[in-house]
Amino acid sequence: MKDLFHVCMTAHKEVMTRNFDDARDFTNLMALAAFRNDTSILADSVMSNHVHFIILSESPKKFSLSLRYSLTKHFNYIYGRTGRLFDKRVFIRKLEGTKHIQMAINYCLRNGLHHGQSETAFAYPFSTCNYIFSRARGIQDPSLSYNRAEIQSYLPKNADFPDNFAIDNQGVISRNTFQEIRLAESWYGTPTNYIYNMNRRTTEDWIKEQEKDDVTADPITLKIIEKGVQFDSESDMLKNEMGGRASVVNMNDLEVCSVVDNDILGRYKTKSIYQLSDKRRCQIAQELIHDCHINAIQAARCVAIPVSMLPDEYRPRKLRAY
Fold first, then answer.
1. Across residues 289-306, what is the average pLDDT?
2. Rounded CA gap, 177 and 155, in Å?
3. Is there a contact between 17 and 92 (Cβ–Cβ < 8 Å)?
4. Which of 30, 246, 280, 282 is 20 to 30 A removed from 170 (C-alpha atoms)?
């Protein structure tokens, strides 16, 4: 029997999407993993270093491990990397109760906003948010290709996929063709209610609404959804709900990785950060901290080294050696 689950996979020590192509490949591999494992995806939000899903599945762990394996294999091939990409633990929580489920979907779709990557939930490009009630919100249907040969060119060799899959003009399998968008919409009822939930501020009312569900499960909160993520504080994520912070914050991971991969690596005559020694990567991280004005944790993540490898003066206070 299938149940609804929230699934979160993290990669604390390095990014898992360095550019748009990586985000595209992640989405396509997600679609294949769902197809292979008879799993329905209602919502997702792919960040540079973690991903949230709301899925309907008999085995969320099987789906998660399948996706982790295929993405790690692909990422390692592209960048000449070895070893596990994701953190070992996958966070899985069964969802019960109408309001509990709606709140979990809310938090999943608002993830880009919560992490300061966009000024509204709708502006974050790597999630299901803009696919839900899209026509009612005035979004035109994209031009899609169902040509199997063209789709196959963006997938691993000999990948099996159904005839209903279609790609947009950037090679991304459309979420309209592999996710349960109508089912996700059913938890909101109307486009107006959906827009309201994407824009409302997190308050104690969210918990009180869930008390109406006839379940014993703890209420879904931002802290529970982000359990194990450890990238931004809860207070910072709540501040980000006000919007506007994304336009003034420092560079995001994809922008930092672009500087590394497109500007810096040319000096070393290599195409992958993973082909450099730890010493070289550490030097690049220090350069990023100085020139891009980012923090040590982000710099280390984007060059794939432990932050503890940086000189003492660069490390966050709690990591400094005293």
1. 93
2. 16
3. no
4. 246
pTM of the model: 0.92
Cα Rg for the chain, rounded, in angstroms?
20
Check residue 304 and give left, alpha or beta (phi > 0: left; psi -120 to 50: alpha): left
Tell me the angle at which helices 60-79 and 20-36 cross, rounded to the nearest 10 degrees: 140
Residues facing 57 on adjacent strands = 3
- Determine the residue type at 46: V
For residue 215, which amino acid is it? V
Confidence label for 312 from pLDDT (cuts 50, 70 and 90): confident
Q: Which long-range contacts (CB under 8 A, 24 or more apart) does 93-96 make?
A: 93/5, 93/6, 93/7, 93/224, 94/3, 94/4, 94/5, 94/217, 95/3, 95/4, 95/5, 95/6, 95/54, 95/217, 95/220, 96/4, 96/213, 96/215, 96/217
Which pair of structure tokens corresponds to residue 241?
């709900």
- CB-CB contact of 246 with 117 (8 Å): yes
Position 59 pLDDT exceeds 70:
yes
User: How far is it, in rounded angstroms, from Cα 6 to Cα 113?
Assistant: 18
Residue with tokens 């020590």: 13
Tokens of 290: 């100085």
131 phi and psi, to 5 degrees? -90, -20
Q: Examine the pLDDT at 141 and tell me if it is beyond 60.
A: yes
